[in-house]
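Chapter review: from sequence to fold.
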Amino acid sequence: QVQLVESGGGLVQAGGSLRLSCAASGRTFSLYTMGWFRQAPGKEREFVAAIASSGGITYYADSVKGRVTISRENGKNTVYLQMNSLKPEDTAVYHCAAGPLVVDGRPDSWGQGTQVTVSS
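The token string follows.
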């Protein structure tokens, strides 16, 4: 398994932007599909975005499509989530995830999460 540490969360006004980062340990980062999930208070964790190992294929939830971009730098063992036009309903703890079944919601590894709060 790979160890994942997220950063970049914070408080932002509606319409603002944030870029989340997820640093991974291990030499096999480039082999993993990586993804982001989020969990709002009182709600189930939901898929946000994922990116294939090569970075050539990306997946997005309908709720964020057009506002969010996932990317990765395999040389830095890091995956990013650029979020624009943020809405109060984007408020959640955002978790990084890794593994071949990320898109199916069954990753092998999870990060501890970073809080994103969007004020109206």
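Two observations follow directly from the output. The chain has no helices and eleven strands. The CA atoms of residues 112 and 118 lie 20 Å apart.
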